[in-house]
Amino acid sequence: MHDAFDDGTAYRAELSARVDHPVLSDDPILQHDLRLPGSWWDDLTKARRCRQLLPTVSPYDSSTWTGRSPSSSASQPRP
Q1: Cβ(24)–Cβ(41) under 8 Å?
Q2: Cys-Cys link to 4, which of 11, 21, 33, 57 (CB 3.0-4.6 A)?
């Protein structure tokens, strides 16, 4: 876990893999269009499809949780 603070804003990140090529942005807020190649979007689509096939126990991924209106979920305890 890596914590950083800048101008009163706290950032937290967890390093899961070292990137040994240049990063896309040196700012936590994107300041310009990244102009990602089509292959990047294709890989993202494949990853999302694979993720959809995995079973989950998270209530945030279930249609019953995400389908609630804000007024009905406000009175519900957080899972």
Answers
A1: no
A2: 11
Average pLDDT of the segment spanning 60-78: 54
> Could you tell me how many helices (H) and strands (E) the chain has, helices first?
3, 2
Query: What is this structure's pTM?
Result: 0.37
Residue 73's CB is within 10 A of a number of other CB atoms, namely 13
Phi and psi at residue 2, to the nearest 5°: -125, 125
Checking phi first, is residue 5 left (phi over 0); if not, alpha (psi -120 to 50) or beta? beta
Whose tokens are 């936590």? That residue is 28
Query: Cα separation of 54 and 72, whole Å?
Result: 28
d(CA 12, CA 1): 7
pLDDT in tens, 16-54: 777 788 888 888 888 888 888 899 899 999 999 888 887
